[in-house]
Design brief:
- This protein is an alpha+beta fold and 333 residues long.
- It is 30% helix and 23% strand.
- The protein contains eleven helices and eleven strands.
- A hairpin with a 5-residue loop joins strand 1 and strand 2.
- Helix 4 packs across helix 7 and helix 7 runs antiparallel to helix 8.
- The longest helix has 15 residues.
- The chain is globular, with a radius of gyration of 20 Å.
- The two termini are 39 Å apart.
Length: 333
Amino acid sequence: IVGSTGVGGLTLGGGLGHLTRKYGLTIDNLLAADLVLADGSFAVASADENSDLFWAIRGGGGNFGIATSFLFQARPVHTVCAGPMLWEMDQAADIMKWYREFIVQAPKEINGFFAFLTVPPGPPFPEALHMKKMCGIVWCYTGTMEGANYILQPIRSYRSPACELFGPMPFPMLQGMFDGLYPPGLQWYWKADFLKELSDEAIEKHIEHAARMPSMHSSMHLYPVNGAAHKVGPNETAWSYRDAIWSEVIVGVDPDPGNRETITNWARGYFDAVHPFGAGGAYVNFMMDEGDDRVRATYRGNYERLAAIKAKYDPGNFFRVNQNIRPDSEARP
């Protein structure tokens, strides 16, 4: 979603993007990886070599070694029909209710993540919308513009967007669309959950807290993790939430370190309000240091297997500055 995202962390954590519904998670397209292990030795992880390690690194994060190269299954994507549609906040409830129904039955060729955002004060956004808090959906369709217009006609006729920047573009252009808003050096505070549903009550809580976004860079996104991502079973890779519909992330972001407390408190308050509607765990790449219980909740029934593999490849827990999976000797209460 942001072009500067590193391929290592993206992949080992699972990997979300604009093509998730079409081609699955990044790990669903991983064929092999070369790793440096905790003892300094080298290992290849694939279906044929160290298959237990290959299973673990597909969602287990940086717990098992340093990945120095990846072999991926390539996918033929060039031009996509993509971009954001934005609506006024007083239409947010209607848009979220429409979106929750749409995304579970939409063709896998279309991806759209929902967002609460503050409109940046510059082109290509209309001046009348600058710095307004709005809701939006950022679309990506791997097909023709005619096909995209047919699929999106219902939302345009139901609630016409206040701003639409949708059209054909090279895929890398979409990937880097928001890079200018998020340069290096910003202050970030993350909270996250997986969601299986989006109830009316949850929508009310989202809107309440989104209306108090504390800075232009702060946001909430709902990334779809259905479609092709659901074709892989919950135990086939370390990523266990194959039954989730969305990966939710709440981020408080600001350039000024002096606003750290403000953005942190907002993100925590928002999370506390909507977490009861979540599925339990969260995408590891969207989490802060939240303790062992949250890590276990994220991996669910896969945790004990991960802990055993950790004990085999990193018994001393050398790789621990992460969403840490402890070796099985440490994992037991």
